What we know:
Elements: H1 3-14, H2 17-35, H3 41-48, H4 57-82, H5 91-139, H6 144-161, H7 166-181, E1 183-184, E2 191-192, H8 206-223, H9 243-265, H10 272-285, H11 289-293, H12 300-323, H13 329-340, H14 347-352, H15 354-375, H16 379-385, H17 390-409, H18 412-430, H19 436-458, H20 465-468, H21 470-494
Amino acid sequence: MTSLQLLLDGFAAALTPVNLLYALIGVTLGTLVGVLPGIGPAMTVALLLPITFTVPPASAFIMFAGIYYGGMYGGSTTSILLNTPGESSSMITALEGNKMARRGRAAQALATAAIGSFVAGTIATALLVVAAPAVVSFAIAFGPEDYFALAILAFTAVSSVLSRSIVRGLASLGLGLVIGLIGIDQQTGQARLTMGIPQLLDGIDVVIVAVGLFALGEALYVASRLRHAPPEVVPVGRAWMGRSDWRRSWLPWLRGTALGFPFGALPGGGAEIPTFLSYAAEKRLARGVAREEYGKGAIEGVAGPEAANNASAAGTLVPLLTLGLPTSATAAILLAAFQQYGLQPGPQLFDHNPALVWGMIASLFIGNTMLLVLNLPMAPLWARVLRIPRPYLYAGIVLFAALGVYALNGSVVDLFVLYVLGLLGYAMRRFGLPVAPAVIGMILGPMAEIQLRRALAIGAGDVSVLVRSPIAAVLLALSALALLAPVLRKLLARRGLAPAPSNDE
């Protein structure tokens, strides 16, 4: 079947009343948590992972996809109205968006962010439909050594990009790899790092790790820095755009989409780099009134980065669905959700579960439309949400996290592990260690270990088998390049050819 036929079948599955309801719940929750500073889509999906035990896979992933896209939409609201980005990818939006709001143009800033997100999300999802089958046909030829090299690339790329320094990124990755070792060795049957606790023989459930490090750790960290004064929210009316705003926004939307999608699909690409590049490009291309307004609230500085942000979200799904490779924190949590259902993203997922994959992709088109309808008329309501007292909010998160984890097995040991991981997540944030590499290490570590053992068994113990495949050799070379990049920057800086890196590196 062609991609178009499979996509039409996906729409047939996604347009059922039950799945439409889950899509609506997802985009509403995603927008809500995106609006609230300090709560992102990764944290929300982590909190909702326990529902994977009671909801059918297709419905769950349609809801998770809605949360992912909705979080990208909602993050712009906080950036524009509070000058407080909910996620790092929304930082650039705050530069011009909040200045527009303080000039009385909050409605126009929210409108260009919402419409730009819709345009970028729709185009990027269409590109996902085209790109995914091509990547799947390439990945079918992967052997054990290729998958091991792919995991190494994910480890190094995510550790180097999602942290201020490679050292901190690798330290976080090491913690995740150690957590992934807990339990019975699948090959030898020996217990590892269980400390004599029977409940740990099956390892630590990925749901507990995700909820502990992301949700509980973030709640503790933000609560420790709460300001007692209520946030100052810029008043906003119904989101709308005039003719001049449309004329100044449509090209930045398209340029932002062109930058965001490929970066999202790259291991470690993320949304931060394309949003910054989009802002820089629009500032360089600005003429006339736009040039004068940059730094004071230029609409182009909101339209382009928001489009790049949402396009990168669709790009992230390409390596996740086709290779099982998460390139962002939310993608890592989605990978954990797949594993809860006993599914492994990759070429076989497209062959054995086409209805699930294409239903999820089709729901992105539907969710984008829902988000546009939600965000334009309901902007004043989302602004009121920002006035929720933070102590109540984060106390609710801690309670919901504990209830969700206890519902998994009814085990007090799970709760104890949750709180230990929550304290670990707090400490990681306190000392500048990124959380995403730890979660990715915990999820991909066991897979990398199994593939390494298979490759060495095929090669009769000869280590050179790991580089005999051209694919594996290229992937390992890219991994080495990611690790050596800071050293190269230092050498270039000494010769005056590049800016000096930070001391963390």
